[in-house]
Specification:
159 residues; mainly alpha; 3-stranded parallel sheet; two-stranded parallel ribbon; 5 strands
Amino acid sequence: MINISSVGGKFAMATYGAYAGAKFALEAVSDSLCREVAPLGVQVVVVEPGGVRTEMAARGVETANHLAAQMTPEQGERYGSLVQANNKLMASGTASCLTADAAAQVIARAVTTRRPRARYTAGRDAALIMRLGPMLSDRTLDRVLAANLRRHYPKGAVG
């Protein structure tokens, strides 16, 4: 059994709470299922991609913009710059993301390997964060993610 999770199933970014929550849950379900079905000879494998060049990013930006347009002035003041920064981050990262074909090759390898690992990352960004993340304290990881996002904030905005 192959479950497609995400680095978002291990590390949650600002405004990605619902997505990360679903992927964190998938990670837990996969771990539990693995322990349940292993005695039956069934292997559970989790693939954890980083950014993959798909329509999901464009739909996410479109949804974020739609929600931002419905914000009250107070909400816009509080969250507008964050939404803009996330959209710019998503757009800047999409071009350098793993192609869907390359992600599919990782999944195909997991399916066809006689003795697959429990987890596979897909993409350099995923491999980096999955190795680096556990080595950092939560506060240090927060600062790293915030610094990466801060570069995408509109000029003069507080991030």
